[in-house]
Amino acid sequence: MGVYAARFECAVHAYALMSNHVHLLVTPAREEGASQLMRALGGRYARYLAEARGRAGPVWEDPFDASPVYVPRYLLSCMCYIEDNPVRAGLVADPGAYRWSSFGANAWGRDDPLVTPHPLYYALGRSPEWRRARYRAMFWRPPTAPERTHQAGEAG
Known about the structure:
The protein has helices at 2-7, 33-53, 72-83, 85-88, 103-108, 119-122, 128-137, and strands spanning 10-17, 22-28. The chain is mainly alpha-helical.
């Protein structure tokens, strides 16, 4: 993906690679960049499936869906939605536990050459530590109610 993102001049801000679909938040430098990126990724993955598994045909059931993000404050919500997808899918309890997403880079500063921080991400704070802490706070969930452990006849 990094090779194609560079070739088609797309900055990748967030991603989650799922077993049956891909979520990407990209900023293309040119008008057709995102569609060229997706076409190249689909073609490369189709070749991989044909070589490795003898599977031919389209990779995805539907063509990719591209939705522009026009409202700046919505961009960070999109990043969270993408990186939280493995949690919503029930694959992990915490987005940091999913290896195939940009959460480690955006929330913890892990080296991920695929990720280019968006200017709105930089606006979360002056220091990298502050930005990452504020970004992680966007994923906060209220704790679940503790189970009752009282046995019959116990006071309390």
